[in-house]
């Protein structure tokens, strides 16, 4: 078996423990030192004059950060609001829907558990029905995903909730096709793009989804708590923040009601939002070719990692290369069916990999124990040898 390889050449830009083979950028992201230093700087500035900051500077600085983010996402600033994270974005939209008993909320079996819970809660409170489209995994072509979803539309479908990049299975879904097919049936789409910004080139305006939420703390590498919600203009009035605050009756005519309401939901630390432009700039400067090169680098690395792992396990890649961004999941032989941890369940193998080999990588019970997947991520601080090491360890442990 290989010995533990060092991290990649960019690893010293992060605080990650160099003794750990960290192959799980996907779960919570990891923020470069320079971005965190800039976050600390703004936190100190806020604390030096809290009144001056919140009364006089906050909205202008938020607008500036939003403009930068809008440019990065191919969106209009007017349609964009910061939220803490994608879970909040999904909840905000779902709780704004006015539903009737018998209405249908369409979702896939790959949906992230927290957001599926939000959908179930809204359905339970309104008498709506959750309809699940069972996309197979492994799958041979993205058409299988599209056809499976389209088959589940009915006259009662009110909303499609779909991930841009699926969490457990790491697949990039063809959301452009889905938005257009749903639109032709008069159905709004809520795209959960938790993983998409920084992993995929985005054009949210061109996509035209009624609702799109995403995180900047994953693949843009912004500080944690930097999510956004993009609402198409004709749906602004419909979507209210989860927290109603001053904006609901503020007299200002300088800002839209949409921004008045979503930009202030009570006192909080806004430093993660305000440092999104720094993350966009710093990550975009790490490679000479900027963001396109960074996305290409991470994609090629995760594809190489996936191949190393599949070869080690003697299996074929479970979905086409074209459906991979910088996350990839690979089925493992069945586990013991005993997920650990209540809130973020994971397979016992995940703990063994960390405790005995210092490899941090999620082993996910999917679709249900004892079936399980191992999911790798690729970021600049990784190198191919780390996946070869993982492959040799996993082969030993599961065979
Ligand atoms: C598809 C999807 N939605 C939502 C989330 C939740 O992100 P957050 O915890 O930042 O809200 C994740 C996290 O991995 C995800 O993969």
Q: What does this entry look like structurally?
A:
The chain has 14 helices and twelve strands. It folds into two domains: 11-23 and 289-398, Alpha-Beta Complex (Aspartate Aminotransferase, domain 1); 37-282, 3-Layer(aba) Sandwich (Aspartate Aminotransferase, domain 2). It is α/β, with parallel strands linked by helices and 399 residues long. It is globular. It has helices at 25-28, 33-48, 50-73, 86-94, 113-126, 142-151, 175-184, 204-207, 257-262, 271-274, 276-284, 290-313, 348-357, 384-398, and strands at residues 21-22, 80-83, 104-108, 129-133, 157-163, 188-193, 211-215, 227-231, 327-332, 359-360, 363-365, 372-377. The chain starts with 20 loop residues before the first strand and ends with a helix. Strand 6 (188-193), helix 8 (204-207) and strand 7 form a beta-alpha-beta unit. The model has no long low-confidence stretch (mean pLDDT 96). It is 40% helix and 14% strand. A seven-stranded mixed sheet has the order 2-8-7-6-5-3-4, sandwiched between helices. It has a three-stranded antiparallel sheet with strand order 9-12-11. The structure holds pyridoxal-5'-phosphate (PLP).
Major β-sheet strand ordering: 2-8-7-6-5-3-4
Average pLDDT = 96
| Cα distance spanning the termini | 14 Å
Characterize the largest beta sheet: strand count, sense, and whether it forms a barrel. Answer: 7 strands, mixed
> Which residues form runs of ≥5 with pLDDT under 50?
none
Global Rg: 21 Å
Please indicate the percent range of residues in DSSP E strands (runs of 2 or more): 5-15%
Number of domains: 2
């Amino acid at each position: 078996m290989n010995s533990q390889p060092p991290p990649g050449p960019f690893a010293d830009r992060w605080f990650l423990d160099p003794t750990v083979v960290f192959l799980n950028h996907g779960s919570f992201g990891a923020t470069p030192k320079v971005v965190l230093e800039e976050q600390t700087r703004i936190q100190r500035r806020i604390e030096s004059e809290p009144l001056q900051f919140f009364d006089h500077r906050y909205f202008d600085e938020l607008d500036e950060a939003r403009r930068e983010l809008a440019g990065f996402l191919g969106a209009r600033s007017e349609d964009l609001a910061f939220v803490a994270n994608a879970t909040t974005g999904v909840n905000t939209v779902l709780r704004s829907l006015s539903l009737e008993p018998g209405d249908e909320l369409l979702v896939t079996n790959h949906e992230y558990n927290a957001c599926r819970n939000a959908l179930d809660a809204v359905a339970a409170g309104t008498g709506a029905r959750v309809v699940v489209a069972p996309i197979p995994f492994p799958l041979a072509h993205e058409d299988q995903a599209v056809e499976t979803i389209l088959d589940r539309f009915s006259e009662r479908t009110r909303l499609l909730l779909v991930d841009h990049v699926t969490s457990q299975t790491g697949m990039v879904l063809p959301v452009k096709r889905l938005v257009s097919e749903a639109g032709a049936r008069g159905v709004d789409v809520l795209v959960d793009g938790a993983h998409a910004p920084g992993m995929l080139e985005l054009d949210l305006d061109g996509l035209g989804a009624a609702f799109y939420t995403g995180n900047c703390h994953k693949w843009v590498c912004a500080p944690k708590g930097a999510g956004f919600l993009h609402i198409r203009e004709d749906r602004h009035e419909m979507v209210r923040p989860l927290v109603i605050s001053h904006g609901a009756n503020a007299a200002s005519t300088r800002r839209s009601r949409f921004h008045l309401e979503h930009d202030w939901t009570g006192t909080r630390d806004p430093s993660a939002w305000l440092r999104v432009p720094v993350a966009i700039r710093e990550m975009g400067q790490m490679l000479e070719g900027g963001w396109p090169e960074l996305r290409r680098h991470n994609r090629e690395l995760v594809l190489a990692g996936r191949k190393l792992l599949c070869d080690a396990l003697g299996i074929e890649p479970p979905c086409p290369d074209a459906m991979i961004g910088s996350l990839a999941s690979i089925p493992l032989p069945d586990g013991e069916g005993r997920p650990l941890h209540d809130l973020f369940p994971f397979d016992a193998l995940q703990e063994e990999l960390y405790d005995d080999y210092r490899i941090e990588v999620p082993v996910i019970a999917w679709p249900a124990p004892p079936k399980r997947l191992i999911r790798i991520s690729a970021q600049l601080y990784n190198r191919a040898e780390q996946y070869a090491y993982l492959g040799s360890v996993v082969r030993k442990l599961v065979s």
